[in-house]
Amino acid sequence: MCYPPGGEARTYSKRLPSILETLLSEFGGKLGMSNDGKTEVTNLKDSLNNLRVSTRSLKESSDSIGAGSEEDYNEYNDHEDYKVNEELVREMENVKLAYGDSSLTTREFPMLEVIDVELHLDISFLSHSVCSAWNIQQHIPLTMRMSFSSTSYRFAPPPIKVEVFQANLAPTGFMSQMIKILEQFVRDHWKDEAQYNQQQLKDVNYKKPTTHVTRDGDVASIIDMGFTMQQATNAVKLTKTLDEAIDLLMNHPEKVVGNLSDPEVIKGSLPTSVPKGEDPKKRIPSSRDGLLRQVLEYARIRIPTLPDFCVICDRLHLFSSGLLKPTVCSRELCCFAFQQLGVMADAAEDVATGAEVVDLLVSFAVAASKSARRDLIFDPFPTIVDPQNANNIILGQKQKDFSRLEKMLSKFPSVEQMTKAESMATMVANMDRAEPYSSSLLNWIISSNRSHLVKLNPDRHLKSMSTPFQYLLMSAPPEKDRKFNELKQQYGTIFAFHGSSVENWHSILRNGLKNASGTKLQVNGAAYGSGIYISPNASVSFGYCGASAYGSGSVNKDNKFLGGSSFFCLALCEVINKDIRKSSDIWVSPSEDFVLTRFFFAYPGGMTSVSAHTEQQQFQTEILNTLRYTQ
């Protein structure tokens, strides 16, 4: 909602103290009637009483400003000296010109000379699977709220914080990461009074920018209809509405042929620059049309490659960039901050909502830690820092203490026992009592998983796979997903299985499928050349799984996946149908970028009879129906 100067917000700011006093009085009285949680209620009532005192002070201040009369109050508010900063007004107009009226709203508090500016970014350019992995909603704008001095704007100090949220949704790790990024961006690009250049305000020849309104949502809608990315962007660039774009594509397809699209125009972006030594994924939008538009466009630039950067230091990950979920890097100071500040979602949420997936992640870690090849394949190795002393490294990359790691893993309770604990605090205390810092290790195992691994509903299972343990497995970040879809439009895709020993999946979920041919990671040879080995036949891929070396009894016997002596895993992938070398049912895709995981299947009882073949029409239909449900 937007309150113009002299509008409703002024009256509201005058009435605010009395409104708060009434609400607090009524709410405090209701709290006094409660018989449950007496300690919590008492503490909350104390907090309310403190707030009531502050509210009365605010009311007294408000009364003194108003001098006790409505006439004086109106005279104060209508004073000719009150005026929203001209540069701020111009910047807000520029945002609306480029992104539409709905892209910016404000809340004004003239008596305080404060204005809240909310920038609303359409994030429909993200796929459904990415939004699901990040716990955000594809069709709800991302709001970035900042509070400024309405009269001084950039003559005043920069805003203390930037709020990032989606309406009516709980905070997420994605939002926390964006808050850190945008707060730093605003601080870096804020100009104080000594530096501030007012030349543009004095320039009588100044012209409003000529830009296109961003229409990422229209592009996404057209692609969903089956058109290519290029056709969609061309049509959107040449029209003003979604209906006009669809009409153009249906009736005059020849007009959208060729490379007409300019991604920066579709985004509404201005020319960008890359600071010396910085990654191009952090390119800075032009400041020509003001800080507000810069913030909005910088957010749009950063979001597609967000997982490539550490959630704490915002530097590129030392290794393994290009996966779906943002996480902390392996630098020890970042790990310490992560464990202390909880920037991303902690283990509690994951244990409560995805116990079977947590069980899998722990199983992969145990298998990798017991492998004869663990120095190579346990990658990344955990970084655990004493929460009381940042200099005390419990586990770290520099000196891999596998003995300590195995001991900590061996004391893990079953995930079933974790979920039955009275509270998460009780679970953490029990784990650390059995083996110090083991709860921190569990949190690392969960939060370092950079793939989106979610249990499929039974009614969406691929019946041909003959296992109840079926999962959606997505690992591509937005930028990689976009490039894959462009290649898909050009060459088409096919489906194929990829089999690998259970000890390798700890690394695969964090680093993605890699071309191990000719490297130290190669196990099965490369008789058919270098690349990612896949097969349309599930039975053939099972041959690459190999028996696990961890044996039985390595962890609590109640774990679903490590209770027996064998455990096999299989992924179903979507593959760009280009340059695949085929020798009967053994296929090799030449590029890691041509292969994306879609489903994961676990067989804790060992190998079973699976006759699934991706070239069979019935199985293809099963795959497409389930994918349609999940995307």
Short descriptors:
single chain, 16 strands, four-stranded antiparallel beta sheet, alpha+beta, 631 residues, 24 helices
Task: Provide a descriptive summary of the structure in words.
This protein is of the alpha+beta class and 631 residues long. It is 41% helix and 12% strand. It is built from 24 helices and 16 strands. The N terminus is likely disordered. The strands form five sheets. The chain has a five-stranded antiparallel β-sheet with strand order 9-10-16-13-11. A four-stranded antiparallel β-sheet has the order 1-2-3-4.
> Which bin fits the share of residues in helices?
40-55%
Structural class: alpha+beta
Question: What is the β-strand count?
Answer: 16
Strand content of the residues, in percent?
Answer: 5-15%
Total DSSP helices: 24
Terminal Cα separation, in Å?
Answer: 33 Å
Sequence-ordered SSE layout with sheet pairings:
Blueprint: H1 8-32, H2 38-66, H3 70-77, H4 86-99, E1 104-109, E2 114-121, H5 128-134, E3 142-149, E4 163-165, H6 173-189, H7 199-202, H8 216-224, H9 229-238, H10 242-251, H11 263-267, E5 272-273, E6 284-285, H12 291-302, H13 332-341, H14 347-353, H15 355-369, H16 374-377, E7 384-385, E8 393-395, H17 402-410, H18 415-419, H19 424-434, H20 438-447, E9 452-455, E10 470-474, H21 478-491, E11 493-499, H22 505-511, E12 532-534, H23 538-542, E13 568-576, E14 581-583, E15 586-589, E16 595-603, H24 617-630
Antiparallel strand pairs: 1-2, 2-3, 3-4, 5-6, 7-8, 9-10, 10-16, 11-13, 12-15, 13-16, 14-15
Helix pairs in contact: 1-2, 4-12, 6-12, 8-9, 9-10, 15-17
